[in-house]
Amino acid sequence: MSDGFTSDGFTSDTSSPLSHRVPDLGALELLLAVARLGSLGRAAKELGITQPAASSRIRSMERQLGVALVERSPRGSRLTDAGALVTDWAGRVVEAAEAFDAGTRALRGRRDSRLRVAASMTIAEYLLPGWLIALHRQLPGTAVSLLAGNSAAVADRLRAGEADLGFVEGLDLPADLDGAVVGHDRLVVVTAPSHPWARRRAPLPPSELAATPLILRERGSGTRQVLDAALASHGGPAVPLLELSSTTAVKAAVVSGAGPSVLSELAVGEELASRRLVEVPVGVVRLRRDLRAVWPVGHLPAGPARELLSLTRS
User: Fold this and answer.
1) Which residues contact 153 (CB under 8 A, 6 or more apart)?
2) Residues 160, 161, 162, 166: what is their CA dihedral angle, to the nearest 10 degrees?
3) What sign does the dihedral 287-293-296-299 (CA atoms) show?
4) Cα(first)–Cα(last) distance of the chain, in Å?
5) What is the spatial distance between Cα 152 and Cα 225, in angstroms, rounded to a whole number?
6) Rounded CA gap, 120 and 222, in Å?
7) Percent of the chain with pLDDT over 90
8) How crowded is residue 169: how many other Cβ atoms within 10 Å of its Cβ?
9) Alpha helices in 113-221 (DSSP H)
10) What pLDDT does residue 106 have?
């Protein structure tokens, strides 16, 4: 039965992890450089380390392997017979590491050549175009695809692995998503100039807003989520006059005089400036929300997704 020692008296513990028994790549590259250049000093210079550091690394490798690898003399450094054999094996390990490195670089290149973004409607229409233009300046070779939907749909895309980064407008995050606030938004009550609310002087009571059938986005949208929470203490919003799946459709219906709505300030800036819509002041009610970038828990954005996230914060 083996007593755990080699014939040279060195321990041979094959039960320990391989990383504890095999020299690291830096040490193997140094040994290969000594063999090629015939000098520990020249090998150290080529690898950008000091000669004492190179000597220390060789001695550490010799202790780890239990054999002498390099003989040093005033004329230079030469490999021992064991050192020559270890150098041959080291060459194969380094070649395998180079193939590994080339493969992972290819994977990164493939990842960095595309970016899949899922965003809720307001962010997709009014903020993302500027962010994506800035991203294109930094990463012109990256192909970007954008999937627009409500906040619930964005979360589903991320869970299914169909998007690398998401943007939502709701009040809080599902437990399985992480995120970072990238901006803020305010919801405003808007109506056509012909609507009686457009001529109000006093703020609209939240109770009247809650009791009035509105033209609204569908359930699952960030806008609807914020409005439901804001009016919860007043019984929640009345049954919608119309329920539409896009901000553009809601705006068109309000401009036509069909009824009032509650929409993102980002979405109605142009219509308010041209007086096609009028903002109606409202009494004390919370109609603000955070805009968030989101991703699955434990999967921090990488590559182009990380660059886009950085751009949203700047």
Assistant:
1) 118, 220
2) 100
3) negative
4) 67
5) 10
6) 8
7) 61
8) 27
9) 121-126, 128-138, 151-159, 206-211
10) 61
Amino acid at 190: V
CA distance linking residue 81 with residue 57, whole number of Å: 19
Q: Is the pTM of this model over 0.85?
A: no
User: Do 144 and 117 form a contact (C-beta atoms < 8 A)?
Assistant: yes
Distances (CA, A) of 161 to 157, 296, 297: 6, 9, 12
Q: What is the mean pLDDT of the chain?
A: 88
* Per-residue pLDDT tens over the stretch 153-177: 999 999 999 999 999 987 778 889 9
Least confident of 3-17, 24-38, 128-142, 285-299: 3-17
CA distance 20 to 22: 6
pLDDT the model gives residue 5 = 40
Cα separation values, 171 from 143, 176, 225, 302, Å: 31, 15, 7, 25
Q: How far apart are CA 103 and CA 94, in angstroms?
A: 14
Asked if 281 and 204 count as a contact pair (C-beta separation under 8 A), the reply is: yes
The answer to whether 151 and 294 are in contact (CB under 8 A) is no
Count CB-CB contacts under 10 A for residue 202. Answer: 7
Other residues' Cβ atoms within 10 Å of the Cβ of residue 61: 22
The pair of structure tokens assigned to 39 is 């000098």
pLDDT at 8 over 60: no
Report yes or no: 69 and 32 within 8 Å, Cβ to Cβ.
Answer: no
For residue 286, the tally of other CB atoms under 10 A from its CB is 12
* Percent composition of the chain: helix, strand, coil (DSSP 3-state, to 5): 45, 20, 30
Phi-psi region of 150 (alpha: psi -120 to 50; beta: other; left: phi over 0): beta
